[in-house]
Queue: 2 jobs
Job 1
Amino acid sequence: MGKRLRSSRVCVLGMSGLGCEVSKNLVLSGVKELKMVDSKLVSEEDATSQFLAPRDKIGENRAEASLQRLQQLNPMVEVSADTANAKDKDAEFFKKFDIVVATNCSKANLSASTPSAGREGSLLCRICWFGFGL
């Protein structure tokens, strides 16, 4: 199991608080590569849940703002950021990954090619989190 994990290429769609937690755990576990995909900017609201982006990064892209802290957790993992919108990615993009983790993505926002995309035998993990606002 450990060898398979260390050779895994993972894509995380969405770097909200949930995406940060998932990314942190994957990097600490020692995957080979982790790519964060998020087109949104760090907001004041993110400062309460998005622990990878420093407060001085408000207004910058969430994936890029998270890059330095995430890479520092495990220098053996190749960590990269993609500022594109995940729904604009095609099947070819997803074929590079063994696992695609889609956080906070509605079913409508996932590309039709995403579930079957990736390497043969790859896994799509869709994580939904529903909270209650004031």
Note: The first strand starts at residue 9 and ends at 13.
Job 2
Amino acid sequence: QWSATETKAVVSTQSTGELPALPDSLTDGLFKRKPKPTKNEKEMFVENTAEDPKISAEKIALQKEVDALVVPAVKSVDMLQSYLRSRFTLTKGQFPHEMKF
């Protein structure tokens, strides 16, 4: 299930690069947030004593594994790393459908 992305935040590009096969443990379920528990009327005014959610060691290890695969692929394409880091903005008179990257 994909969510809609704001069209002014999307830029088409002709840049390509080859990515290696990513781990099978990388699934959409990994990125879902856990629902927050609802509070009843008595709990609404009690100070929040819940701890901040911690990132599991499994997710940290998976992130390092994915980074080890993706970062060299991004660095292998000329200027792709700086392109991905740069902020994209349009000014008056610039039309994204007329631009080529």
Note: The chain has a mean pLDDT of 79.
